[in-house]
C-alpha cells in the first residue's frame, strides 16, 4: 500500500488531482483512507465528526447522514455540532451540505452561545463566513461574553472579513458586549489598523465608553498601540472634535489617557498626548488617590518620563490625596535616580504627607539604606524630622526591623536619637523590646539607650520584653537596668506579672532569681500567682511558691489563687496549692469556697483531685461540719 500512496501523492499538482491520482484516490478511499486539506492521506475508519470536518471529508458526512439523519445535528461533549466544526475548519462544501441537505440550523449555539459564524470569524475562515452569511447566519447574535461576529473581527483585524460583515444588514457597528465594548474598542486594543480605519470610515463612535468608562483612546493606550493613538487623534480632528477635550476624557475612576501612559511607561504616546493638549497636572480623582502623571512616573522609576513631564511644565511638588509629592512616591519605591533628578530640579525635601512623613522618612520606613544616606548627604538636617506621631528615624528603623539602616542612622546621629520619645513616650528600645528583637536591643544599648525610661503607661522596656516572652531580651535589658525589675506600671503590673500572665517559666525564673517581688498586686488585687494560675502554667506557679508567694492573698473579688485554680480546670495546680497548705475555708464575695467553685464549674479532674487529696478530711469538714472520714 505504501508505494501506491506515494504514487498518488506524487500525482497531486497545486491541490488538483491528475487522472492517475483520481483513479488511485478512489481505490484508497475504498480501503478506508481519506485525504486531508493538505492533500495528505490518512486512515478515516475511526474518525470523529470533528476530524472528518477538519479534513473536509464530505462523502463521510453524507454517509453519516444516510445512516442517521439526526446524527450531524446532535451536539458532542463540548456542545459542538458538525456545523460548528465545519465552520471552524473553513469547509464550505460541508457547510452547504449541512444547511441545505440536512436542514442544519445555521445559527445553532453551543453552551457558551457560540454560533458557527462566531467560530468562522474567530479563525479567519473567509469561505465559511461567506457561506454562512449567504445562508442566513445572524451576524447580530452574541456569545456569552456579549460579543457579535464583528467584535471578533475587531480582535483579528481582517479587512476582507470586516467588509463582509459590514455589508450584512444585521451587523451593528456600535454593538456592545457585556463590558459595553464596541468593535472599535477591540480593534484599538489589538492594534488592528485596517479594522480601525474601516470602522471609523463607517462613523464608529470615537467617544463610546465601556462599563469602566474607557474610550477607544484609553484602550489603545492600554494595549500600547501608538499608531492607533495617532489614527484616533487624526480622525477626531477630521470630525472637528475639540482635541484637547478628546485627549483629556476621564474614565469612571478619573483616569485620563495621560495617566495610563505614565503608569505603563509609554513615553512616545505620552508625548503625542502632551503635544495635543493633555493636562499635564490632571489628577486621578476617584480610585487613583489623586495621582498626577508625575506621581505615577516617579513611582514607576521612569526618569525619561519624569523629565518629559517637567519639560511640559508639570508641577514638581504637586500633592496627591495622601499629601505625597512625586518625590515621596519615588522615595517610597527606592528609585534613587528619580529622587536625585527631582531634587536637582528643586523638589522640596521638607514637605510632609498626611502621616508626617518626609521623603527621607519614607525611605527610612521602607528600609532603603542607600537612598536614606543619599538624602542625608544632600541635607543632614533631614535626620531631625519627626512623623505625625513624633517618631524619629530611629523609631521607624526599629519598628520596621531595618538593621543595616539602623546602623547607618546611628553612625550619622550618634546616640542623640536612641532615647528619643514618641507620642506614647516610648523610645526605640521600647519597640525593640516589644518585638523581642535581641540584636536591635544590643545595638541600642551599645549606643546609650536608657532601659529604665517609662512610657505613657509607666512601662519600661523590661515590661514589654516580658510580654514578648524573649529571655535573651530580658537578660540584656536587666543587665543594664538599675530600677526596672520591680517598677509598677499604671495598672499595677510588674515585669514578673507580665511573665506570669504569659506562663513563661524561663523568664519568670530569671526575674525571681534577680529579686523580683512576688507580693505586688495589680489594680484588681491580682498577684503574680493569680496570673500564673490563670495561665495554666504549673511550673511558673511552683517557682513562685518556691519564692514564698502567698497562696492566700485575695484579690478584689476576695478570691485566692486556689479559687482561680478551681474555676479554671487546673487539677495539677489545685493539688500543688493544697500541698502548699492553701486555705480551703476562705470564701469569695459570693460566699463561695474553692470547692463550691469547683462543683459549679463541674470539672471532673479538679473534683477528683480534691477528693483524693490527703487533705480530704479538712476540705469535707469545711463544707460538712461534723463529718468524719
From TrEMBL:
Keywords per UniProt: ANK repeat, Receptor, Repeat
Lineage of origin: Eukaryota, Metazoa, Cnidaria, Anthozoa, Octocorallia
Protein name in the entry: Transient receptor potential cation channel subfamily A member 1-like
Domain of life according to the entry: Eukaryota
InterPro entries: Ankyrin_rpt, Ankyrin_rpt-contain_sf
Stored PANTHER family: ANKYRIN REPEAT AND PROTEIN KINASE DOMAIN-CONTAINING PROTEIN, ANKYRIN REPEAT-CONTAINING PROTEIN-RELATED
SMART domains: ANK
Amino acid at each position: 500500500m505504501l508505494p501506491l500512496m506515494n504514487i498518488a501523492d506524487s500525482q497531486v499538482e497545486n491541490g488538483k488531482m491528475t487522472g492517475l491520482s483520481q483513479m488511485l484516490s478512489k481505490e484508497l478511499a475504498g480501503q478506508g483512507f481519506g485525504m486531508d486539506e493538505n492533500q495528505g492521506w490518512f486512515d478515516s475508519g475511526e474518525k470523529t465528526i470533528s476530524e472528518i470536518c477538519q479534513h473536509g471529508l464530505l462523502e463521510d458526512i453524507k454517509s453519516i447522514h444516510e445512516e442517521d439523519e439526526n446524527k450531524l445535528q446532535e451536539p458532542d461533549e463540548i456542545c459542538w455540532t458538525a456545523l460548528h466544526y465545519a465552520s471552524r475548519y473553513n469547509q464550505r462544501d460541508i457547510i452547504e451540505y449541512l444547511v441545505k441537505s440536512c436542514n442544519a440550523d445555521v445559527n445553532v449555539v453551543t453552551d457558551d452561545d457560540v454560533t458557527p459564524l462566531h467560530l468562522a470569524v474567530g479563525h479567519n475562515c473567509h469561505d465559511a463566513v461567506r457561506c454562512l452569511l449567504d445562508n442566513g447566519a445572524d451576524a447580530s447574535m452574541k456569545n456569552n461574553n456579549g460579543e457579535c461576529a464583528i467584535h471578533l473581527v475587531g480582535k483579528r483585524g481582517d479587512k476582507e472579513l470586516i467588509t463582509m460583515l459590514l455589508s450584512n444588514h444585521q451587523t451593528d457597528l456600535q454593538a456592545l458586549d457585556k463590558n459595553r465594548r464596541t468593535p472599535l474598542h477591540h480593534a484599538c486594543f489589538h492594534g488592528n489598523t485596517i479594522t480601525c480605519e474601516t470602522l471609523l470610515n463607517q462613523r464608529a463612535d470615537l467617544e463610546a465608553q465601556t462599563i469602566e468608562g474607557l474610550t477607544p483612546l484609553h484602550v489603545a493606550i492600554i494595549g500600547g498601540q501608538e499608531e492607533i493613538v495617532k489614527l484616533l487623534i487624526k480622525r477626531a480632528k477630521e470630525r472637528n472634535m475639540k482635541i484637547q477635550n478628546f485627549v483629556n476624557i476621564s474614565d469612571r475612576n478619573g483616569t485620563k489617557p495621560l495617566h495610563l501612559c505614565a503608569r505603563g511607561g509609554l513615553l512616545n504616546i505620552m508625548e503625542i498626548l502632551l503635544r495635543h493638549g493633555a493636562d499635564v497636572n490632571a489628577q486621578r480623582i476617584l480610585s487613583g488617590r489623586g495621582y498626577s502623571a508625575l506621581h505615577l512616573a516617579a513611582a514607576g522609576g521612569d526618569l525619561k518620563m519624569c523629565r518629559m513631564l517637567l519639560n511640559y511644565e508639570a508641577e514638581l511638588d504637586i500633592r496627591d490625596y495622601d499629601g505625597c509629592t512625586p518625590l515621596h512616591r519615588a522615595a517610597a519605591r527606592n528609585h534613587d535616580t528619580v529622587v536625585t533628578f527631582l531634587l536637582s530640579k528643586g523638589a522640596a525635601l521638607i514637605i510632609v504627607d498626611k502621616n508626617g512623613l518626609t521623603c527621607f522618612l519614607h525611605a527610612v520606613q521602607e528600609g532603603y539604606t542607600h537612598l536614606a544616606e543619599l538624602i542625608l548627604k544632600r541635607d543632614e538636617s533631614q535626620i531631625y524630622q519627626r512623623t505625625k506621631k513624633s517618631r524619629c528615624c530611629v523609631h521607624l528603623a526599629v519598628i520596621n526591623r531595618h538593621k543595616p539602616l539602623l546602623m547607618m542612622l546611628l553612625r550619622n546621629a550618634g546616640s542623640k536619637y536612641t532615647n528619643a520619645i514618641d507620642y506614647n513616650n516610648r523610645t526605640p528600645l521600647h519597640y525593640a523590646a516589644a518585638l523581642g528583637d535581641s540584636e536591635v536591643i544590643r545595638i541600642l544599648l551599645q549606643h546609650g539607650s536608657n532601659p529604665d525610661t517609662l512610657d505613657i503607661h509607666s512601662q519600661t522596656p523590661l515590661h514589654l520584653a516580658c510580654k514578648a516572652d524573649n529571655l535573651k531580651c530580658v537578660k540584656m535589658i536587666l543587665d543594664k537596668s538599675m530600677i526596672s525589675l520591680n517598677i509598677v506600671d499604671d495598672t499595677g503590673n510588674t515585669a514578673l506579672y507580665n511573665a506570669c500572665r504569659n506562663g513563661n517559666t524561663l523568664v519568670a525564673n530569671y526575674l525571681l532569681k534577680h529579686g523580683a517581688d512576688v507580693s505586688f498586686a495589680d489594680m484588681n488585687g491580682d498577684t503574680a500567682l493569680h496570673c500564673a494560675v490563670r495561665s495554666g502554667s504549673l511550673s511558673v506557679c511552683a517557682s513562685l511558691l518556691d519564692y514564698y508567694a502567698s497562696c492566700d492573698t485575695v484579690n478584689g473579688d476576695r478570691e485566692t489563687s486556689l479559687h482561680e485554680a478551681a474555676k479554671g480546670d487546673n487539677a495539677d495546680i489545685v493539688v500543688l496549692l493544697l500541698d502548699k497548705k492553701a486555705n480551703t475555708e476562705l470564701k469569695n464575695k459570693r460566699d463561695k469556697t474553692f470547692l463550691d467553685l469547683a462543683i459549679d464549674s463541674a470539672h471532673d479532674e479538679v473534683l477528683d483531685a480534691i477528693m483524693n487529696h490527703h487533705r480530704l478530711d479538712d476540705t469535707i469538714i469545711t463544707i460538712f461540719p461534723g463529718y468524719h472520714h
